[in-house]
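User: Can you predict the 3D structure for this chain?
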Amino acid sequence: MTWPYDLYICDCGYEQPEDHDGSCGAWRHGGTWHDDGYRQAFQAAAREGHAYVESTSPHNGHKSVVFQHIEGGGLCEVCGPATGRRGPYTRSPNSRQYLCDPCVRDLQGALDDLHKSIGAYRSRELWPVLEDSDR
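Assistant: Here is the predicted structure, written as structure tokens:
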């Protein structure tokens, strides 16, 4: 069984990052990669102004968005509506979301404090998804 990774590219013609915040409705298929090709799919999406990669489970057909990219960063899903700050699509211990640098620092600091309090080794828990795929 293979895992397909489909690239979808925004076809709305928007120029500014903030124009892509939830208003895109026209998408074109940009290609399909399989299995370990997800890295190439993520890289292809990162070369576009706005794109996402969707994977489909070969077991049950469930579709999931596994990577998103907006040139200039997506609106931070923690503080963005109040501050307007933007950042890359980031992997955290419980989700993937757009996070700005201050929120990444704050969340990583909270995780470091938690690890210290339970005697666990501290490690970097928050990574941009594109960077994480190359580790």
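The mean pLDDT is 91. The beta strands are 4-10, 27-34, 50-56, 63-70, 74-75, 86-87, 89-91, 96-98, 127-128.
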